[in-house]
User: Fold this.
Amino acid sequence: MASRDPLLPNAGIIARREYRDRVRGPLYMASTVVLMGLALLVALAPIGIRYFDRGTVTRIAIVSSDGGLAQRAVAVADTVLNGPPSGVDPATWQKPYHLEVTTTAGAEAAFTKGELAGVMAVERLPTGQVDVTLRTYEGPNSPRSQILAVAAFGIGVLDWSSRLPAGTDAPLFVTPAFHVDSINTATDGGRPLDPQETASRGFLGVVFVVLLFMSVIIYGMWVATGVAAEKSSRVMELMISAASPRQMLAGKVVGIGAAGLTQYLAIALPALVVLAFQDRIAEAILGPGWSQGTPIVGLTPMLLAGYGVFFLLGFGLFALIYAAMGSFVSRPDDLQTLSLPLSLVAIVGYLTAIVALSGGGGTWIRVASFVPPFSPFVMLARIMITAVQPWELAVSVGLLVAAVAVVSVVATRMYAAGVLLYGQRPGVRAFVAAARRAG
Amino acid sequence: MDCLGGAILACVSLQIDHVTKRYGATLALDGLTFEVPRGEVFGFLGANGAGKTTTMRICLGIVRADAGEIHWAGTPVADLPRRTWGYLPEERGLYPRMGVLDQLVYFASLYGAAPAVARHEALAWLDRFQIPEYAEKRAEELSKGNQQKVQFIAAILHRPEVLLMDEPFTGLDPINLVILREAFTELRDQGRTLIFSTHQMEAAEALCESVAIIDRGRLVAGGRLRDLKRASGRRWIRIALEGAQPAPDWLGEIAGVERVGRDAVGAELELLAGAEPAAILNVVLARGGSISHFEVIDPSLEALFIELVGRPADGDGAWSANASPTPGPARDAA
Assistant:
């Protein structure tokens, strides 16, 4: 009978009950509100840091063999970088940049120590063209690089006008050259990544991996506890005659997973909105001139889709195993011991992903990104910080889908056997033996 | 429908055919075979561990048999829709924090019943079971007896053809026992087949037309209850003589009387197998006894069970056949 029962509508009916049972609980509502508040605080933290860090001055050195040219460069860059935003009183405005003329050796030493955000080498070529090279840790597309490109043009104009002779034969104006000597190695498909984008994607990678880990552990345990609670309340005896194990397992995983996803979205969405509009919020709270660019640059639709796929498959894989484990205990209290090995597996995946995000690597990271149940964590980390080949992504997702399919069959058998076991101490041997008997 | 009048095949609906089930080294069912007539209340009797719950679970498809087949109205149970069955398990349980009416509708929906219809019928049954005020309450707020009534409603709300109940009377007070028995009768009159296991032989005797007695996974006896009693060959006569209290000693000397039990108003004579009550009556009249009461009594179901199985249904395995079971006779309803 069980083998012929279609998944729907019973799996849907069970999922709906599980979902309602969870989201209507006072603990669920309280935890959602508390976590939402915490997430908003974390999202607003950069504004707070910016507020307390508002006295910090960024140093940029200007190097030139021509002292006059160096002074002109300082004057232009000062105007461009330190001009007060509209609406701000110039008398109270604190300049965020300190521009200093120094020697090449001194600038290089300070830059290497990290005391300088950049070194701008300004020279006049024999053709009269001003050549500006910005040595920086940022990429050419960063806001500061773009601003200094404008400054380079201004330096060229100022230098050209300062050299105009008294007569009518003015030298031809040559557009200044501007180069960015970017000191970073991060790339995305060959495209150099801006350090802000790199940092942003690294930060988001950590956030995503942590969220996946928490979802697997917390909501996976919800699934296991839900199954165990049905056994301890003996309502399972009524359920097993009304629905097949496959229907019950799918309904539980989907229903509780949906409740988890709801809480997850309730926590994450407001925080993401705050992050996306952080500049405007900073301006509204701290006043004009406090915007420094959104901290979640680099979050593309493809990355979000990748996260969604790995989240759903990863959660599904772990939740199915948690459900099977839940069916083998008579009381929810017994779950802690039985679920420990699975939690350790999730922790290994999580830590490997964190190592990958921090720039660590090697064969193990690469292999783990293909092997379920580690791949949801590790491949997610890889796609956040490096360029992953399409075939690698396809193989990783394909193996994960296959693992979910196999685990769902095995978990259903274990679930069918486990729900009828009462008063037995849960153990791996009983787990496997019962699954074989159920077949 | 008279299943004894040559139309047995038409009436037999549930056929348990040589079903065997083994759990590891334990043989739970050993070629169990019996038949249940359609539209009857059927008693499935056996001591703890006899295999009753396993048989029910195999009927429901929860557990697979190692060998043998089960058919309902000629169709293998594996091919039947789930809603064919209603099941009241021995282990009682409801969702503690869920409203009573909500979970009744929930279970009925899983069996394919329309929620609106299920809600309407659930309210009617709650009213019938004298607990309408609990419809919106959480299950955890109900007493165990009332929870049991809710579970019974959950088992029948989708109008199953066959209702399997594992120890349905356990834990019920006398008033609720009567209500449940009346519900059994009503469902039977609607044409449904009710199969229940019980330790309470009085309840089985009062409700069942047919029974199956199993022990250690094997059928010990099965069929019409009246026929089983008659086939046992054991009968009692209850007799009272005018002006003879206590009953005279010579009653025990009548041929065919094995044992005499006396009380304040008369005596119960246990007859030897084959002894005819009419012959006993003639002997008493010939001795000049003035009879004020004479009644032929078949053995009680409990006595029959003990005779067949060797221990009472609610006893443990240590019960000895040599110990006195003191089974009381039951008046034949026929």
